[in-house]
Amino acid sequence: MPKEIIDPEPEGERPRSIRLTDPRALRAYAHPLRMSLVGLLRSSGPFTATRAAELTGESVASCSYHLRILAKYGLVEEAPGGRGREKPWQATAQYTEWPEYSEDASIAQAADALSAAVAEQYFERVTRAMANRQRLPREWQEAEQFGDSLLHLTHEELADLGARIDALLRPYEARASDPSLRPEGARPVSVLRIAYLDLDVPDSEKE
């Protein structure tokens, strides 16, 4: 299923994932600022709308409005402490998931639109990373991964491959908010996983 894999929350403190199936929630989350706010809350929260404005460059009023919309659909919630406008917000889950398929056209269309919005955000982040990579030490430049593979798989094999990659990444998730688990030299690394049936490649069937 489609899943954002940015900025995970600590394992065990909150649900690992929230699944969106309401078309209104899917459309609401597709807003770039809202996706950014949820990602920031997962990596740097809890924080107030004032802090959100500092992190995003948007106005406090705008951030406050979008945080309330996110709360309406269960993606964020008020965190303990704070008063009035200075109330802190926190993410409700580590990841966001949504349907990869639905017979309901409204859900399918909203889910595809959200996936497209997330892909655009991924592209922007990768572009920024590539623009800044010359500032990195040599060992990090050499360790970074950038490439693609064209595989011939059945849909069962593709699903199994995704599950195995999930299992491979899972042991590192708890490090996000527990610095004691990080080995010396560990730094935040975004791992993007995109696998799709490539209709641009001629598909020759076996005879």
UniProtKB/TrEMBL annotation:
Signal peptide: none annotated. This is Winged helix-turn-helix domain-containing protein. It comes from Streptomyces flavochromogenes. The lineage of its organism: Bacteria, Bacillati, Actinomycetota, Actinomycetes, Kitasatosporales.
